[in-house]
Amino acid sequence: MSSLPVPALELVAVSKQFGRTEIIRDVSLQVPRGERHAIIGPNGAGKSTLFNLISGRFNVTAGTLRLNGVDITRRKPFEINRLGLSRSFQITNLFHRLSVFENLRCSVLWSLGHRYSFWKNLNKLADAEERAESILDQVGLKRRRDIAAGLLTYAEQRALEIGITIAGGADVILLDEPTAGMSRAESKRAVELIRAVTQDKTLVMVEHDMSVVFDLADRISVLVYGQVIASGTPTEIRGNDAVREAYLGQPAVTT
Amino acid sequence: MQQTALTFRPLNFGRWVVWGFTALLFLVLPAFFSKGFALTLMSQMGITIIFALSYNMLLGQSGMLSFGHAVYSGLGAFFAIHALRWIDTGALAWPTSLLPLIGGFAGAFFGVIFGYLTTRRAGTPFAMITLGIGEMVFAASLMFPGFFGGEGGVTADRASGSSFLGIPGLTFGPQIQVYYLIAVWCFVCMIAMFALTQTPLGRIANAVRDNPERAEFIGYNTQRVRWLMLILSSFFAGIAGGLSAINFEIVSAENVSAVRSGGVLLAAFMGGAAFFFGPILGAVVFVFFAVALSEYTKAWQLYLGVFFVLLVMYAPGGLSSLILMNLRVLKFKKFARLRDPYVGLLLAALALAFGTVLIIELMYHVTLNVGQGPEVRLFGFVFDTTRAPGWVFAVTTLTAAAVAFEFYRRRFKQYWDEAQVEIEDWIRENP
């Protein structure tokens, strides 16, 4: 085991309690570099909480989190982001008064080393502009470049949400229900977008839509009542009895 | 790099025109308003413009509602006036023209210290802590008369330094010279503060304003962003303070008081926090109320309050957004249908203002000017406050105007909202 390469993301016996309620119980998970990993599970299983723990929004009660081998337990969100992990949100979380382009440009500034500088002219930072424009193109919002993010349609906002997440060039991407609330067609486009932008990156996603999950994921972990009850390839998960039991009556897994 | 230098950018050209026009305006204003009072007024406007713009770096650009911004301008003013006293005695060799810089560094210094505490939190806790620090500094200013001068404040003579660039007579004694000194500082500060909005920090401050949580997830420490913005804002507030020390030659506890902090909030909000130039308008209007109107009536604060309340109720974006919204209506060629309701609305508003002023002035006369007899002169008419006709006329005018105003307001709002919806739909569909 010790000869294996360092995983991109590693959770060791992670637990989270809110008051006396234990939301995440002793979760251990390894996501190797370059893998697309989906976390599924019934409502209230703790999937979003798990994301909030990994990204530093909440602190763990117990356990250890490692990003590319670096301990990120109890680090702040911006520190974790600077170490190469970026996340999206289930409920769209944009800079709503800024234009689409500005949303993206803001998201590339730190990684390009412009940081807090107040002596550089933003409009002359060719690297930031180029990068923001290329992501604008990637997420298909070129036509909406100068519109305030708050005025976009729902599907466009979801696309921008993904754009902001990948803009900083993080190599570990967490997407929280990227296709929630989308129509079939929109969802299909979103899957293609996610596939394209996470090329050569590590992706961890929470998703309810099983067709999306089986389409994208290399491996799947099933979270039920805060515990990982199964982890494996899509085929293994499809044939797993415990998973079938947890999803009893839910035909989604058979897709 | 050369390629970008050659690209023609009309926007930049427009900017040059705007700045050029502003500079020209500052230059020629005294030629049109040459009276002593006008110069005083314009000098104070210049100072307040810097102060209000620095305040808006927090309110409009970073989403920080401060109730204690006078702390930085006030402390800057105190340090500047002490420096001026040293210049007076010859203990300090520093040109008077650069005195505001001392105020600026003092403001920034306290921005570093107090800002470290206040900016750890955002939103309401931030507002409350700034209020606390404002009260603390005000209390301290009365407790340490050695530095703050106690009730009387600290005075100095602005004209005693060496003359500017050695030019004889340029000692900043005459008000016109002070005006130009303020104008130059105001112009430079305006450009600097505008430039700041076009930097990585300036833009990230907007992001933190819109969504602090997301800003953390794109790698930014929002506390650090708020702190840096507050330090820079305090620097410019301190410059305004330094200029006021030169202009008034006195600085007292009032300079760090909550009244000053509230005043700059009012100015920035009236002008509109959403646009860079908003606080400039707000500062001009505010000083007009506080300095010009106060010459004519004791009720100026009441008028300012009423004006502020009306703005917040009917144009929450302030004067700047009011102007820009109308320009947008013009641009989309929807103004024709608004013209008639506008005329009605403006006439009714004038009548309403007339009625309100009559009532307020009559009442003020009765309560405050008893010694001057029952007669008061308003708008060229003489009213006898002891007899009915004047009161009846005022009340009738006010009532009729209020009814007319409400009628036109509803009609206007209907047309206005329709036009806005059409414009926004168009923008949504035609990016």
In terms of topology, how is this protein built?
The complex is a heterodimer of chains A (255) and B (431).
Chain A: E1 9-18, E2 21-31, E3 36-40, H1 47-54, E4 62-67, E5 70-71, H2 77-82, E6 85-87, H3 100-109, H4 126-138, H5 154-167, E7 172-176, H6 184-197, E8 202-206, H7 210-216, E9 219-224, E10 227-232, H8 234-238, H9 241-246
Parallel strand pairs in A: 3-8, 3-9, 6-7, 7-8
Antiparallel strand pairs in A: 1-2, 1-4, 4-5, 9-10
Chain B: H1 2-6, H2 10-32, H3 36-62, H4 70-89, H5 99-118, H6 123-143, H7 145-148, E1 154-155, H8 175-197, H9 200-210, H10 212-217, H11 222-248, E2 250-251, H12 258-271, H13 278-296, H14 300-314, H15 318-331, H16 336-368, E3 375-378, E4 381-384, H17 388-429
Antiparallel strand pairs in B: 1-2, 3-4
Helix pairs in contact in B: 2-8, 3-8, 3-11, 3-12, 3-13, 4-5, 4-11, 5-11, 8-11, 9-11, 12-13, 13-14, 13-15, 16-17
Characteristics of this structure?
heterodimer, A: 255 residues, alpha/beta, Rossmann fold, six-stranded mixed beta sheet, four-stranded antiparallel beta sheet, globular, B: 431 residues, mainly alpha, ABC transporter involved in vitamin B12 uptake, BtuC, 2 domains, two-stranded antiparallel ribbon, two-stranded antiparallel sheet, 17 helices, 4 strands, disordered N terminus
Description:
The complex is a heterodimer of chains A (255) and B (431). Chain A has 255 residues and is an alpha/beta fold. Chain A has one domain (9-254): P-loop containing nucleotide triphosphate hydrolases (Rossmann fold, 3-Layer(aba) Sandwich). Helix content of chain A is 33%, strand content 23%. Chain A contains 9 helices and 10 strands. Chain A has helices at residues 47-54, 77-82, 100-109, 126-138, 154-167, 184-197, 210-216, 234-238, 241-246; strands spanning 9-18, 21-31, 36-40, 62-67, 70-71, 85-87, 172-176, 202-206, 219-224, 227-232. A 6-stranded mixed beta sheet of chain A has the order 6-7-8-3-9-10, with helices on both faces. In chain A, strands 2-1-4-5 form a 4-stranded antiparallel beta sheet, covered by helices on one side. The longest helix of chain A has 14 residues, at 154-167. Chain A is globular. In chain A, 45% of the residues are buried. Chain B folds into 2 domains: 2-303, ABC transporter involved in vitamin B12 uptake, BtuC; 332-429, no CATH class. Chain B contains 17 helices and 4 strands. The chains are: A alpha/beta (255), B mainly alpha (431). Chain A binds chain B through residues 55, 57, 76-78, 81-82, 86-87, 89, 93-98, 102-103, 105-107, 109-111, 114-126, 128, 143-147, 151, 164, 167-168, and chain B through 4, 195-196, 198-204, 206-207, 209-211, 213-222, 224-225, 228, 232, 424, 427-428, 431.
